[in-house]
Write a structure and sequence with these properties.
Helices cover 75% and strands 0% of the residues. With 68 residues, it is mainly alpha-helical. This is ABC transporter permease.
Length: 68
């Protein structure tokens, strides 16, 4: 119990540092921004792991599992 004040002060300093570096945003990212971030990685993975045929095969398998 004697260490609670020290721990609280350390937590407060951590929050101040996080806010100073822009880490305190709690909002959600816009879906278009998220898509723009993911597309380059997705294209790289398509090239590395077998091209469009593998993507189409997997997508059709998922569609069959979902009943579409």
């Amino acid at each position: 119990m004697a260490d609670t004040a020290a721990r609280a002060m350390i937590r407060t300093q951590g929050r101040k540092a996080q806010a100073a570096f822009g880490g305190s945003r709690t909002g959600r990212r816009h879906p278009l921004v998220a898509t723009a971030m993911v597309l380059p990685l997705a294209a790289l993975l398509v090239v590395v792991f077998g091209g469009w045929e593998a993507v189409v095969t997997q997508a059709s398998s998922v569609g069959v599992m979902l009943g579409r």
